[in-house]
């Protein structure tokens, strides 16, 4: 969708902002451009919509050389979101969102209908927020309006220049989550500029790590964190890159242990026998459809003469996640609930139990992920040596 071919931007004073840049962004891909201030990230982005013209090289958008396209027409094909949002203070939220459709000559009713649809998509009820003015919104709400406005004419490409940089960390994380959900629905081709490696890792399908005017590494977040291409990249992503990699490494079935399992309506004696047979201190409790219900500790079944069913002794399970959740979320869930393990369920079902993830298995999963990238094989095929197996 976007292709740079040997693009250089050199200013009259001799400063080279971007030097011989070549890369491609596939349709529907979100690429984050990350690096320190002044490294050429924003210059790269602004050359895509011709706010800055390259000195050398060519840039293509959906096969068209953008130097041959009228700049105004080009910009109407591209959504643009900046840190300070840039909403018109004298226009309502609905009018701001409908700006580009109106410029494109859409009928007023159609433009407002599209604006209301987009506001709802970004979590702002148009019946509540549509008639408000930007000054009546919080920073996070204004940022959402900016995203809705950029999407209003359904552009194939979205340029985002540190869009969440002006809000506090809590709101920023919330906006990142909402944007990921939105991107999963609209699948735009996105160039996203940030100076924050954690934001780049969390959002990007691929990351372009900038040095001074050049891309030092262009790869998946996991590879950038697990196998930095240069000492510069290793230093930039930080010595804690292993921890950062937790956020881009999903839980897989091969990571899970299989503990003893009982059902709600099993006699308590059945649970007792199973726990003793396997020498376990607890068992997972499922309902009649094998969906996760909770767990039962061994001490609840210690009395061999106890009667009743598992249901009467089962405890609710709060520490659980769906398959595919990042290891970072798994680790945070363990800490939040002071849990020695978390249950993992099938996210496509109502809660079918798949297994449990322990701290040891979490560590193995991270190590296997790094080794799998290095060996270019699926993670499940990688064996790791642990203290237990050494």
UniProtKB/TrEMBL annotation:
Q: Where is the CBS domain?
A: 314-372
Q: What is the lineage of its organism?
A: Bacteria, Bacillati, Actinomycetota, Actinomycetes, Kitasatosporales
The entry's family comment says: Belongs to the ABC transporter superfamily.
GO MF annotations, alphabetized: ATP binding
- On whether Repeat is a keyword of this UniProt record, the answer is yes
| PANTHER family documented for this protein | OSMOPROTECTANT IMPORT ATP-BINDING PROTEIN OSMV
* Superkingdom assignment: Bacteria
Which Pfam family is one of this chain's hits?
ABC_tran
Keywords associated with the record:
ATP-binding, CBS domain, Nucleotide-binding, Repeat, Transport
The protein's name is Betaine/proline/choline family ABC transporter ATP-binding protein
Occurrences of domain ABC transporter (ranges)? 2-237
Q: Which SMART domains match?
A: AAA
InterPro entries listed in its UniProt record? AAA+_ATPase (IPR003593), ABC_transporter-like_ATP-bd (IPR003439), ABC_transporter-like_CS (IPR017871), CBS_dom (IPR000644), CBS_dom_sf (IPR046342), Gly-betaine_transp_ATP-bd (IPR005892), P-loop_NTPase (IPR027417)
Matching SUPFAM superfamilies, A to Z? CBS-domain pair, P-loop containing nucleoside triphosphate hydrolases
């Amino acid at each position: 969708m976007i292709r740079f071919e040997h693009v250089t931007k050199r200013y009259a004073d001799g400063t080279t902002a971007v030097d011989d840049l070549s890369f491609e962004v596939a349709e529907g891909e979100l690429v984050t451009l990350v690096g320190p201030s002044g490294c050429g990230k924003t210059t790269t982005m602004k050359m895509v919509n011709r706010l800055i013209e390259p000195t050398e090289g060519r840039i293509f958008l959906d096969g068209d050389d953008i130097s041959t396209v009228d700049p105004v027409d080009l910009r109407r094909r591209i959504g643009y979101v900046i840190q300070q949002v840039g909403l018109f203070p004298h226009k309502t939220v609905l009018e701001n969102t409908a700006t580009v459709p109106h410029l494109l000559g859409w009928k007023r009713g159609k433009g407002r209908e599209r604006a209301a649809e987009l506001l709802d998509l970004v979590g702002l009820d148009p019946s509540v927020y549509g008639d408000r003015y930007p000054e009546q919104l919080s920073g996070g709400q204004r940022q959402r309006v900016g995203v809705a406005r950029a999407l209003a004419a359904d552009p194939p490409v979205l340029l985002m220049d540190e869009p969440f940089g002006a809000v506090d960390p809590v709101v920023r994380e919330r906006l990142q989550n909402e944007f990921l959900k939105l991107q999963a629905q609209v699948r735009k081709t996105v160039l996203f500029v940030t100076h924050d490696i954690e934001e780049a890792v969390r959002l990007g399908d691929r990351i372009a790590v900038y040095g001074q005017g050049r891309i030092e590494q262009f790869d998946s977040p996991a590879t950038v964190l697990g196998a930095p291409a240069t000492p510069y990249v290793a230093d930039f992503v930080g010595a804690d890159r292993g921890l950062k990699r937790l956020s881009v490494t999903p839980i897989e079935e091969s990571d899970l242990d299989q503990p003893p399992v009982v059902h709600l309506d099993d006699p308590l004696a059945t649970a007792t026998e199973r726990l003793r047979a396997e020498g376990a201190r607890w068992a997972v409790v499922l309902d009649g459809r094998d969906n996760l219900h909770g767990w039962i500790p061994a001490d609840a079944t210690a009395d061999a003469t106890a009667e009743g069913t598992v249901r009467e002794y089962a405890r609710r399970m709060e520490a659980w996640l769906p398959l595919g959740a990042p290891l970072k979320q798994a680790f945070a869930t363990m800490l939040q609930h002071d849990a020695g393990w978390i249950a993992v369920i099938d996210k496509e079902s109502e809660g079918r139990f798949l297994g449990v993830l322990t701290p040891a298995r979490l560590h193995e999963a991270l190590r296997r992920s790094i080794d799998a990238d290095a060996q270019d094989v699926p993670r499940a095929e990688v064996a790791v040596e642990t203290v237990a197996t050494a």
